[in-house]
TrEMBL record:
Similarity comment: family membership: Belongs to the leucine-binding protein family.
Protein name in UniProt: Substrate-binding protein
Protease found in the keyword field: no
Entry keyword annotation includes Disulfide bond: no
Pfam families noted in UniProt: Peripla_BP_6
Length: 477
C-alpha cells in the first residue's frame, strides 16, 4: 500500500539555530516534542513524544536513533517503536521564533498500529495454511523501552524455524499484540490474538500484564509462555514461566555491588506492582544472609515522571546501594534524575531490569555505576552469540536497538516451542506444553538452557557493570 505521512507542529520563541542546537537537551527549546537526546550526533538514541493523534489525543512515545543531520533545519530519526519507520524534524523561521514540524512516515504496519490504538478493528491478514503464534509485547507505554527489539528478534526466530521446515511442515506465522504497558489492554490484545487463531502466546511484558492475560485466558485452551524475567508462581499445565528469578539475580550481584560501593546499606525502590514487590522481598532475604542492611524502601506508580521526593529520601537515608526495581521508561527517568541530584556520586545501583536498550536511554553518564544481572547480554563471547548478533544486524541494520536478555528470551522461547511442537505426540497446546516443560537446548546465544517444570528455567547468570557504550560482563560466581 502507499505510504502515509502524519504531521505535528510547534512554535518556539527562539531562532532556528538555537532550537536545533538544543534539540533533546531537556532545557529551553530542547523541550520541543519532549525530545531527549544526550548528544545530537548520527547514531544517538532519541526519545520523543509525538502528538500525531492531534491536540485531543495522547502523544505517542517514539524510540529511535538519529539517522541524518542537516543543521540548522533538518533532523532525521529512524525508529522501531511503536512501529518501524522514519521521522523528519524540520525547523524554519517563523517571525521572531521558529516553526518546528514533525513528519512521521507510516507504512502498513504503522497504520494498523495507529488504527488499533484508536479502537478500529484491523485484520491480521490471511492465516490459513500457517501455524499462528502470538507475541504479546509492549510496543508502547513505559515498558516499550526494554521491549524495543523484541518483535525483531521474534521475527528472526520465526524465519529460522521456517527455514528448518516450520512445525510439522507448516510455516509459523507471528501475530503481534501491543499491551501498551497496561494489563487491561494486554488482556484485550491477548483475546485478539486468540480470535486470530493463535493457540500459543509468547508474553514479553510486565508480570502485571502476563498475570491478567493468563487469568483472562484460563479456560481458552491456549498455551501462554512468559519469556522474560519474572517472579514465578502461576505456572501450570498451559502456563510456562521462563526467564530469570529475582532471588537468583540478587544472589549473583549483591556481593559484587556491595564490594564496588564499599558499603552495605541498601535503599529499596521500585514500581508498585507484583514483580518489584517480589524483588524487594527477595532482597531482604539475600541481604540478611550477606550482612547487608535495608535503610529505606519505597514504591512508585508505573508511569511516574518526577522522582524528586523519593531521591531526596534516598539521599537522607545514607544508603551505599540503591536497589532499583523500576522498569522501562520509569527506570530511565529515575536514573537520569539520580545523576542530576547527586545520588550517583554517593551510591552504586543494582537494577535487575536494566538491559542494553534501557541503558542507552539512561545515557552513558547516568548509567555509569549501575549493575545488572541476567542470563544474557549482547557482549557475551562465543560463536553462537556472535552469529546471532550478526544475523540480527544483517536483517535490521546498524540503527536497530541492541539485543538484551529481555528480547533474546523470546528468540529462545520460540525455538524451544518449535522443538517441543515437533516432538509432541499430537498437535495440541496441551501436548506441546508437556514437551516444553522438560526440554533442554545447548548452543543458544546465552549458552545451555533447560526447562524443568512450568516455572523453572535453568541458565547461567552474568553480572554486568554499565560503562560508556555498553556493559562490562562477567559470569556470576
Amino acid at each position: 500500500m502507499a505510504g502515509l505521512a502524519l504531521t505535528a507542529e510547534q512554535h518556539v520563541d527562539a531562532p532556528p539555530g538555537a532550537v536545533f542546537a538544543l534539540f533533546g537537551a531537556g532545557t529551553g527549546a530542547g523541550w520541543v516534542f519532549d525530545a531527549a537526546c544526550d548528544r545530537l550526533v548520527v547514531g544517538a538514541a532519541v526519545t520523543l513524544r509525538a502528538p500525531i493523534f492531534g491536540a485531543a489525543g495522547e502523544p505517542v512515545e517514539i524510540l529511535g536513533r538519529v539517522a541524518a543531520l542537516r543543521p540548522p533545519s533538518r533532523i532525521e530519526i529512524v525508529h522501531d517503536q511503536p512501529w518501524r519507520g522514519r521521522l523528519r524534524v524540520l525547523v524554519d523561521s517563523a517571525g521572531i521564533g521558529s516553526r518546528v514540524r514533525l513528519i512521521a512516515d507510516l507504512d502498513g504496519a504503522g497504520l494498523n498500529w495507529l488504527m488499533r490504538r484508536r479502537g478500529f478493528a484491523v485484520s491480521d491478514g490471511e492465516l490459513a495454511g500457517t501455524h499462528p503464534v502470538g507475541l504479546l509485547t509492549s510496543k508502547s507505554g513505559p515498558a516499550s523501552v526494554f521491549a524495543s527489539p523484541t518483535e525483531h528478534v521474534a521475527a528472526l526466530a520465526v524465519e529460522e524455524i521456517n527455514a528448518d521446515g516450520g512445525i510439522r511442515g507448516t510455516p509459523v506465522r507471528l501475530v503481534v499484540g501491543d499491551d501498551g504497558t497496561d494489563p487491561d489492554l494486554g488482556a484485550l490484545e491477548a483475546w485478539r490474538l486468540v480470535k486470530a487463531g493463535c493457540r500459543t502466546i509468547m508474553a514479553t511484558t510486565t508480570s502485571a500484564t502476563f498475570t491478567r492475560a493468563a487469568h483472562e485466558l484460563r479456560d481458552s485452551g491456549v498455551l501462554m509462555v512468559q519469556t522474560v524475567m519474572n517472579e514465578g508462581g502461576i505456572g501450570g499445565e498451559l502456563r510456562v514461566q521462563l526467564g530469570e528469578r529475582p532471588e537468583d539475580q540478587l544472589r549473583a550481584a549483591a556481593g559484587p555491588v556491595m564490594e564496588a560501593a564499599g558499603g552495605r546499606r541498601w535503599f529499596l525502590a521500585g514500581n508498585a506492582y507484583i514483580w518489584p514487590r517480589v524483588v524487594h522481598t527477595a532482597a531482604r532475604r539475600v541481604l540478611a544472609e550477606q550482612a547487608g542492611t535495608v535503610v529505606g524502601e519505597s514504591f512508585q506508580p508505573l508511569g511516574t515522571r518526577d522522582f524528586t521526593p523519593l531521591i531526596e529520601q534516598i539521599l537522607r537515608s545514607g544508603a551505599d546501594v540503591v536497589l532499583s526495581a523500576f522498569v522501562g521508561a520509569d527506570l530511565v527517568q529515575f536514573e537520569r534524575q539520580c545523576l542530576a541530584m547527586g545520588v550517583r556520586d554517593r551510591c552504586r545501583t543494582l537494577a535487575p531490569a536494566i538491559d542494553e536498550p534501557t541503558r542507552e536511554r539512561i545515557g552513558d553518564d547516568a548509567s555509569t555505576g549501575m549493575f545488572g544481572a541476567s542470563g544474557y547480554f549482547e557482549e557475551l563471547p562465543g560463536e553462537a552469540n556472535e552469529a546471532f548478533v550478526r544475523r540480527y544486524r544483517e536483517m535490521y541494520g546498524r540503527f536497530a536497538p541492541p539485543v538484551s536478555s529481555i528480547s533474546e528470551s523470546v528468540y529462545e522461547a520460540l525455538h524451544l516451542y518449535a522443538h517441543a511442537a515437533r516432538r509432541a505426540d499430537e498437535d495440541t497446546p496441551a501436548a506441546i506444553a508437556r514437551e516444553l516443560r522438560s526440554i533442554r537446548h545447548d548452543a543458544f546465544p546465552r549458552g545451555d538452557v533447560a526447562v524443568d517444570g512450568p516455572e523453572t528455567f535453568r541458565q547461567s547468570l552474568f553480572v554486568a557493570e554499565a560503562r560508556p557504550g555498553g556493559f562490562s560482563v562477567s559470569r556470576a560466581s
